[in-house]
Amino acid sequence: MYTEEYEAKGFVLRKFLLKLIFVVIFVFLLIWLVPKTTYKKVDNIDKVKDSSPLNNQIFLDNLGKMQKVGVDYYTATRLPKAVGEKDEINLSEMIKKKLIVPLVDQHNKACDIKKSYVRVTKLDSEYLMKVNLKCSKEEDYVLVHMGNYEYCDSDICAKKETEIAVEKSKPKKEVSFGTGKSTTNSSSSTLPAVDHKVEEPPVSVPEVVPGYQYEYQKTTGAKYSDWSRWSNWERASCNTTAYGCDDSNPSCVKKVQIYKRKEKVGTYDKEYVAGRDEFRQLNSYEQQVCANYDYISYNNTLYVITNPYTTINYVTNANQASVSGWRYEGRKSYASPPNDTLTTRYKYVQADFSSCNSTCSVAPKKIYDVYTYTGQIGAVTNAISSQTIKTLANQSLAVNCVGITKKTVPIYGAVTTYEKAVRKEPLYGTVCYQSVKTRSVINQGKTDTKWSSYNDVTLLNNGYHYTGNKKG
Q1: Of 122, 155, 395, 428, which has the fewest CB atoms closer than 10 Å, so is most exposed?
Q2: By percentage, how much of the chain surpasses pLDDT 90?
Q3: Alpha carbons 471 and 149: distance in angstroms, whole number
Q4: Which phi and psi (to 5°) does residue 105 adopt?
């Protein structure tokens, strides 16, 4: 009895130990199979890896919010005017102006309000906006081209065809822009406001010559008056260039910004020329014809006429009902100059500019005095003889010859003439304006001069600047 009971208890114990061993093995395998990199410790809090799509989306959403604020904020009055000028607003200023709420990253930490900014640079014909965002250790930016495009709902908007892509690394240096033409606005009659923040054009650096030493200077203890406000825009030569300088340079006492636009600068005589066919007597010849009729020749055809026939040049009195066989029909306006015919003549009076504004995109209408022939005219269809001659006209014209005689027959033909109308129209040109601000040196301070190689970063970072002098 004792032995059987003892063996039964031993069997139960072995069975329990085997189950325990299997459980331990299963737990060990489970821990070994689960990746250890799913989580990492950040600021003593377990966070999902920074490379997760959610975290990237949070950063991009914040970048998009800053971009929208930048596009809305930079209206025409806030944009830099001269090529190469820049204007910048950082996240701190955006928050103060209630343009955006504080931005937080995936770690629930506030983004850097000083190193996160929107900067706009004036290019030749548009603007380049850089939107930079720094949150924790992550920092990236996007570049947006902006301008006054035909599809803009306001005076400026983002360029549609520009693809906005996040750069993977920051550039090591800013792009510098040279002097170029400012945009113009011929529809605007007022100059832009000048009491805005203007970042000066890049300070020029000396031309690099291998093996040369360059002069650097640093002034300490100098005192300056406050900069004056930008002066009102004044006309200036278009050869004037914008000028900016380093505030720490004691010779920096004047800054100049330039604005260019199209304006009316005077008038000029614009000619509008149009051609038409005018009937004139070109020549004459002798021929045997009926003694009691007159004749003319046109296009190798002989015509008999019943009233005197002259050219329009001889019809000069528009107030008479008829002049030498022609009747005055009144004054009429034509979009295209009319051509003379055998029975109608047009005498040019003047151009009609009533449908034009400051300029005419098409030729103006022409005004003519109109005359019609008062007699009958018909082409001779058979030879001249002492018998009755039938001629063709608008109605049959029976010609009864009373004797045959030799007469001079004038030859008429169509001659192309050009009628010119002249009108004074506005002349537009590029007009330049300058705005200036100045300051004065109250105390020259102490100036330290050093000579070194070109682009001595140590000196530049310590407040030294180029003087433009160099030596070999």
Answers
A1: 395
A2: 15
A3: 49
A4: -95, -170
